[in-house]
Structure prediction request, 338 residues.
Amino acid sequence: MAKVLVTGGAGYIGSHTSLDLLIADHEVVSVDNHVNSYRESIDYVNQLSKKKVAHYDIDLCDKEASRIVFEEHKDIEAIIHFAALKAVGESTELPLLYFENNMKSLLNVLKLADEYDIKNFIFSSSCTVYGQATDLPVTELTEMKEAESPYGRTKQLGEYILKDLAQYSDINIISLRYFNPAGAHHSGLLGESSKKVALNLVPVITETAAGKRKECVVFGDDYDTRDGSCVRDYIHIEDLASAHTKSVEYLLNNNNQDPYEVFNLGIGDGVTVLEAIKSFEKTCHQKLNYRIGPRRAGDVVAIYSNYERAKQRLNWSPKYGIDEIMKTAWQWEKTRPY
Ligand code: NAD
Ligand code: WQD
Prediction:
């Protein structure tokens, strides 16, 4: 059982992963400046796990302020680095903010890991690194295309830095490329609670159904796909969280095949926007107020994963599909405490 530093621990994926780590008997130290999250998520992680996260409210762009975490926890064995800004559209308006926050926080955490001799590191990457993929499903060997946004570029740059670092030092690193994380914890006490307006499909659907928005606009139905709407690989947040615990244990047990490895995390199947809406209507027993609108600039037409590598090496497979995502996302929307 290990002590794991989770950066961005109060965020959507960070909070679910912290809970999964605690349930697997690991200890969690968390750092978050709450630029996009609420402290309450940590309280619910503590409540659900009946354990306690050691949480710090610190901006990781401030290296010296972050040092206290490493000083107070000299026995950290692994780091999962979630902390980043992630709004694709915002990154096109504020590219420098995205480069500064995402690259500086990454480099500061890596420098502190080096100083405090922490040898296991997991990075939140994204399917966005593949850009407009043409060969589906994408494997980890599919080449990275030009990034569609400054946000996507921070993930590509992060991966390049980590690949070199693993080659030229003795740290072991995994980059996890998430496809479309969605849904909420089955308890109804944890879910996505962003400080920014939700732009991703699943929260847009649930907020529309809850009357928080007028309608859900489908961004285009004239693509070359089975029903004309875009195809994505939606992965349930609990499945995604468990892949992080498995990745930590894989590194701690020295099971890694290379100092730098990359894993796709998706369900290996594509779902169209219209199918996602149908799943919501069927699973949650209600009609959604939606209409077809124009295409959204920068959208990839279709992308879904081959996750065979994660299955083979991490012994990880997803348990849930789109229906369970909709069911838990809707439960969260109706009862969310923060
Ligand atoms: P999130 O915004 O809920 O969580 C990120 C957390 O990092 C937030 O709590 C935020 O307050 C914190 N943070 C940001 N900058 C910080 C800084 N400088 N110092 C300290 N804390 C800081 O987002 P998420 O969905 O949980 O995403 C987690 C990671 O996964 C991110 O790196 C994101 O880019 C990546 N990712 C997310 C998705 C997705 O669709 N959710 C998909 C692929 C990759
Ligand atoms: C999904 C589909 C939209 C909203 C983003 C990032 C990516 C990764 C995951 C971080 C698309 C359609 C959406 C709406 C719609 N994040 N849609 N109406 O764009 O696949 O990926 O999150 O790394 O980098 O780009 O996710 O949820 O925004 O969209 O029709 O109101 O739903 O066109 O086809 P996306 P999304």
User: Anything to note?
Assistant: The chain has a mean pLDDT of 97. The pocket of nicotinamide-adenine-dinucleotide (ligand 1) is lined by residues 8, 10-14, 31-37, 59-61, 82-86, 101, 105, 124, 126, 178, 181, 194 (CB under 6 Å). Residues 27 and 213 are 39 Å apart (CA to CA). The longest strand covers residues 120-126.
